[in-house]
Amino acid sequence: MGPAIKESGCPIVSLDSDGYIGELIPLWIEVGINCCTPVEVAAGNDIVKYRRLYGKKIAFTGG
Prior knowledge:
This protein is an alpha/beta fold. It has helices at 2-8, 25-31, 47-54, and strands at 14-16, 35-37, 59-60. The protein has one domain (2-60). It is 35% helix and 13% strand. The protein has a 3-stranded parallel sheet with strand order 1-2-3, with no helix packed on it.
């Protein structure tokens, strides 16, 4: 996935994920995913905390 997307020049690689994502975000960033939707509060996600931890390395929608 990663090399083909990077070579295409696609600036946004978004992933749809449900549930708790806190432990997955560093892995997603490592492989080139830079956007996630949704960020479910009911699953224990803290979107403000994630922004503090990861800055602009990944965008979040929903939450």
